[in-house]
Amino acid sequence: MPDTPAPVSLPTPSTARPVPGQLTFAAPRRGKPPQHLADLDPAERRSAVEALGMPGFRATQLSTHYFERLVGSADEMTDLPKAIRDELVSGMLPRLITPVRTLEADRGATIKSVWRLHDGALVESVLMCYPKRVTICISSQAGCGMNCPFCATGQGGLTRNVSTAEIVEQVVHSARLLRSGQLSGGPEDSPLRVSNVVFMGMGEALANYRAAIGAIRRMTDPSPDGLGMSARGITMSTVGLVPAIDRLAKEGVPVTLALSLHAPDDDLRDELVPINTRWKVDEAIDAAHRYFEATGRRVSIEYALIRDMNDQAWRAELLGKKLNRRGRGWVHVNPIPLNPTPGSKWTASDPKVEHEFVRRLRGLGIPTTIRDTRGSDIDGACGQLAAATA
Ligand code: SAH
Fold first, then answer.
1. pLDDT tens digits for 306-346?
2. Which residue's CA is minimally distant from atom 20 of ligand 1?
């Protein structure tokens, strides 16, 4: 079966207290995107090509063009007979995402792209060049249903789930952008490749599980079946959907897990991350720890530092103790200075307070690094993606 957008069958948060605003797992099905090569595994691709009346091996040729050479236009596929090229490309590589807008920051080292999907839904991705790596931050849903009050995406609600190929396309288009030399400041000594993918754009990827895991497989499958990326270079960020974290741990693709905790106590986390009314702080941390045990991958705890909300030294101590209670060396903390979002009353912590927060965690032996967020001047930083160009 192709990985078409489908809600992951998570238990509905029935025991949760009512949460203000939208909190749905089942995304409204607007327009189902056309099926694309990147929705399918290699066997399914062969069948799809055969269904078009062509021999199955054409699927491998097409995969080589798409995943290895990053080619998507029929003209460039000169090894395919001219008579079938157009039909093969329109049948297997339909246009799924169209750039609406591209914004640059950091003197060209950060590029935010706004993409229009076939039904008009918008998603955003952000490409970031660092001296030793190139990271793309991708969207796994158009909008988000998690309703975190400090996040611009959360405030806009969920438009729809995206498909596996709509996720992969963000990576492939960005890889083409990179190759065309439109980004500056990348690694000097290595060929320009997207080395890291973070599911930290719009959406809660684990609420669109089937599409997200399909995209992870396409990214990590060796070429020409997939993009041949290392699972270590992929980070799945989640509000803490416990059953989905446990499921991910069993997939055999050891991506890095990042848990958006933002508070070590339920009172505050209920407010900052509303899904906490369903899966509590300790349940989320336990799931993250199980993920570490199953995969050996060190987990990252995301903690947006919000002035006078969650940045007190006692909260750093409580967080450190809760993490240490599960073991040593399994986790690191990634505080993120809060990025401003429209209409939000909150701001980032005072630098002295931020420093103290980090000091307390390190004092407890927890590796802690402040996240270098990029692109806040183009509304491209964490929590600012709202596709406001419509
Ligand atoms: N749904 C996923 C991905 C969200 S974006 C998740 O919640 O993990 C990635 C990170 O940015 C999350 O940790 C999210 O909480 C954080 N974030 C959201 N809004 C932010 C803001 N205004 N400033 C800083 N970080 C923010």
1. 999 999 999 999 999 999 999 999 999 999 999 988 888 99
2. 383
Ligand 1 neighbours by CB, cut-off 6 Å: 146, 148, 150-151, 200, 204, 237-239, 260, 302, 304, 336, 338-339, 341, 382-383
CATH architecture of 97-389: Alpha-Beta Barrel (3.20)
CA 260 to mean position of chain CA atoms: 13
Residue type, 84: I
Q: What is the pLDDT of residues 115-138, one digit of tens each?
A: 999 999 999 999 998 888 999 999
- pLDDT in the model for residue 186: 58
Cβ–Cβ under 8 Å, residues 310 and 276? no
- Closest to 300 measured CA to CA, from 246, 238, 365: 238
- Per-residue pLDDT at 318: 98
User: What is the phi/psi pair of residue 22, to 5°?
Assistant: -90, 135
Measured between alpha carbons, how far is 72 from 61 in angstroms, rounded to an integer? Answer: 12
Q: Which residues are catalytic?
A: 124, 382
Centre of ligand 1 from the C-alpha of residue 337, in Å: 11
Q: Where are the domains of the chain?
A: 37-92, 97-389
Task: Kindly give the number of the ligand 1 atom that is closest to the alpha carbon of 258.
Answer: 8
pTM of the predicted model over 0.85: yes
Domain covering 37-92: architecture: Orthogonal Bundle (1.10)
Percent of the chain with pLDDT over 90: 77
* CA–centroid distance, residue 325 to ligand 1 (Å): 25
Instruction: Answer whether 269's CB lies under 8 Å from 19's CB.
Output: no
Total H helices, total E strands in the chain: 11, 11
Q: What is the pLDDT of residue 214?
A: 98
> Residues 6 or more apart from 191 whose CB is under 8 A from it?
none
